[in-house]
Amino acid sequence: MSQRLPDASEESLNIVRRRIMAITWVVTSIHGLFGAIGAAQAIGDDRRGDQIILLGVSVPLAIIIYAVTIVILQKPFLGWRTTPWLVLLLGICAAGFVWVL
Fold first, then answer.
1. Do residues 22 and 77 lie in contact, with contact meaning Cβ atoms separated by under 8 Å?
2. Element (H or E) spanning 40, and its range?
3. What is the DSSP string of 79-100?
4. How many Å separate Cα 78 from the centre of its chain?
5. Where, by residue number, does the polypeptide cross the bilayer (predicted)?
């Protein structure tokens, strides 16, 4: 016989599941962001146009990472607890622009 969890326990378990999924998503996808910035650095200054394109791709990638994470966690898109993460991701992109260009 299976026992059903009380509603509060079931909701707590769902919160934990969403957090684990969000952490896994961020850790996996952040490699793509760092990869785009690293590739822009690796291709060299003789291909400046390609560097700018890769750095330009990093900004929408950072926004997608943020948006999917917010959807997984079921949080508001802009809030005092979530907006600093968007600023951090866009700060990584800005640091990439400074580093490469």
1. no
2. helix 7-42
3. -TTTHHHHHHHHHHHHHHHHHH
4. 15
5. 20-40, 52-73, 85-100
For 28-31, the CB contacts below 8 A with 24+ separation are: 29/61, 29/64, 29/65, 29/68, 30/65
Query: Can you tell me which residue has the tokens 């992109």?
Result: 93
Q: Give CA angle at 77 (16, 88), nearest 5°.
A: 85
User: DSSP state, 2?
Assistant: P
Give phi and psi for 76, each to the nearest 5. Answer: -70, 145
Q: What is the pLDDT of residues 25-40, one digit of tens each?
A: 999 999 999 999 999 9
* Contact residues for 64 (Cβ-Cβ < 8 A; gap 6+): 29
Q: 70-93, pLDDT tens digit by residue?
A: 999 999 998 898 899 999 999 999
Question: In the 8-state DSSP scheme, what is residue 6?
Answer: P
